[in-house]
Write a structure and sequence with these properties.
tt1808, chain A, 2 domains, 7-stranded mixed sheet, Type I restriction enzyme HsdR N-terminal domain-containing protein, HSDR_N
Length: 407
């Protein structure tokens, strides 16, 4: 299979349960077996205690070697960070206590992404642990820190305390996506896998499936065939970061975990930001308490990361936004935009902003994002303008949001 799936590489700890719930004044608590105290039974705390139980019972780590919620100011007085779980050991050569493993804990509904790994690596830079791990109570990914400071994923085998101390571990083989031929894209099992994994909406028109499967593969792994940077209407594509696993949310509270391709872009303001593009299927909802009834469809998302944080800049409903013309599909956006707590922005205002910075994107009273060929593999030369239009339009939307928030 050409797609790396989250979870295949993980140690599964979901069966480690049997935690007693204590009740007091109508509230639920869990016993912290490390500190010997009761803690509120929050989703994250349930995972933390579940992991501690796994460390002790399955990995044979002594309870006295484990700390929970360690304030890193005890190591670096300037740090305000706090590590969820830390495992220590005695270095027999120096007879000193050293950090062996740091674990970052997330609630069960939170996907494990590159940002989760980056978070635990920030703790590792202070504690200098030999290993780091991330978990949401279902999966546990363990990484060994290499001499160059990068993290290398271990295989899914059950490692003991002694295995970790003695480096008796194996490394997972990195499975990379490859650019598929159009015949491979059209294979029904591949398309069904994309639907099952949430990259194509289950109610999206089946006639679109081959094109969407090709679009996703093109976005994630098509090589850039020209020399960088690419100058384009006031912005510049500076660097291709490749694909990685992330999650970004929208104003309605939805989230889109999965693979995005990242680009370093010099924006209209001359600053650098990371823009990530990914394609996802939304869930079909029936009598949902918040969203009610909603059909499943496929979206194209552009997310932004800069010094101010990260957010979903553009969410394009592909099912409603493309039109077929002869041998190609044309992409349009209606201009809808939400500016955080400021709420919805008038579509006419968005169009005026687009007219100011990229007037040629206004076609048929909509924002035209480009066209892509159908029934064939998409080359970078054929898709470059579409990608650059997406990046430019996302940047214009971000610029408008920032201007609105300043008022």
């Amino acid at each position: 299979m050409s797609v790396t799936l989250k979870g295949i590489r993980c140690v599964f700890i979901s069966k480690v349960m049997n935690m007693k719930i204590y009740k007091k004044n109508g509230k639920k608590f869990l016993y912290d077996m490390v500190k010997g105290i009761l803690r509120p039974a929050t989703p994250e705390e349930k995972v933390r205690q579940k992991v501690v139980k796994y460390l002790v019972e399955q990995m044979k780590i002594p309870i006295e070697a484990i700390e929970t919620e360690l304030l890193l100011s005890s190591i670096d007085n300037l740090s305000k960070l706090r590590a969820d779980i830390v495992v220590w050991h005695i270095n027999e050569a120096t007879n000193s206590e050293e950090c062996l493993l740091i674990i970052e804990v997330k609630a069960p509904h939170v996907p494990l992404t590159e940002k989760t790994l980056e978070q635990v690596m920030s703790y590792q830079s202070i504690l200098k642990s030999k290993y780091v791990a991330i978990t949401n109570g279902e999966d546990l990914e363990i990484y060994q820190i290499r001499e160059n400071g990068t993290a290398q994923l271990l295989t899914t085998e059950l490692y003991t305390y002694e295995d970790l101390i003695n480096s008796n571990v194996k490394f997972a083989k990195k499975r990379t996506m490859r650019r598929l031929s159009f015949d491979e894209i059209n294979y029904h099992r591949y398309i069904n896998m994309l639907i099952d994994k949430g990259y194509i909406g289950e109610e999206t028109d089946p006639a679109l499936h081959p094109f969407l499967a090709e679009l996703q593969n093109f976005i994630l792994v098509e090589p850039i065939s020209c020399v960088l940077p690419i100058q384009f209407k006031g912005i510049s594509l500076e660097q291709d970061l490749g694909y990685s696993f992330h999650t970004y949310g929208n104003a309605a509270g939805g989230s889109f975990p999965g693979y995005y391709r990242g680009f370093v872009v010099k924006t209209l303001d001359g600053n650098e930001a990371i823009y990530r593009i990914g394609m996802f299927g939304t869930a079909k909802l029936i009598n949902d308490p918040i969203y009610g009834n909603r059909k499943s469809y496929t979206v194209l998302n552009v997310a932004t990361e800069d010094m101010l944080g990260y957010h979903n800049s553009l969410e394009l409903n592909i099912d409603n936004s493309i039109s077929k013309r002869k041998t190609e599909y044309r992409f349009f956006h209606n201009g809808r935009l939400t500016a955080g707590k400021k709420g919805s922005v008038k579509i006419e205002k968005v169009k005026n902003y687009v007219s100011k910075y990229a007037p040629d994107l206004l076609v048929e009273d909509k924002i035209y994002l480009g066209s892509l060929p159908n029934n064939m593999s998409i080359s970078w030369d054929q898709g470059q303008q579409f990608i650059m239009n997406l990046l430019l339009y996302a940047n214009i939307r971000d610029k408008l949001r920032n201007d609105i928030k300043k008022r």
